[in-house]
Design brief:
Blueprint lengths: L5 H10 L3 H15 L10 H17 L3 H20 L6
Helix pairs in contact: 1-2, 1-3, 2-3, 3-4
């Protein structure tokens, strides 16, 4: 059985109130999906979702100043997905 993806793990941890651990998991997820990290462009949809989840997790722990730029980066990544034909309408 494959271990849970960090983004899924983050969601599950957040659901049970383990917010700091959820934040750590989603930060890991974003880190492995960032361009330049050797990851293919095909990971862009995952990066967009992970950035969105990161903004949520940052907000849950009261780190609003960091959550807003993360949300903005998520929106940019989602827009790029649409331009590349990755997004479902």
């Amino acid at each position: 059985m494959e271990p849970p993806r960090p983004s899924n793990l983050s969601n599950h941890l957040g659901e049970v109130g383990r917010r700091e651990e959820a934040l750590t998991a989603i930060q890991e997820s974003v880190g492995v999906r960032r361009p330049g990290g050797g990851q293919p462009a095909a990971w862009l949809p995952d990066l967009a979702r992970s950035l969105n989840n990161l903004s949520i997790r940052l907000g849950e722990v009261g780190r609003w100043e960091e959550a807003v730029p993360s949300r903005d980066k998520a929106a940019e990544a989602h827009a790029e997905c649409r331009r590349q034909g990755w997004a479902r309408d």
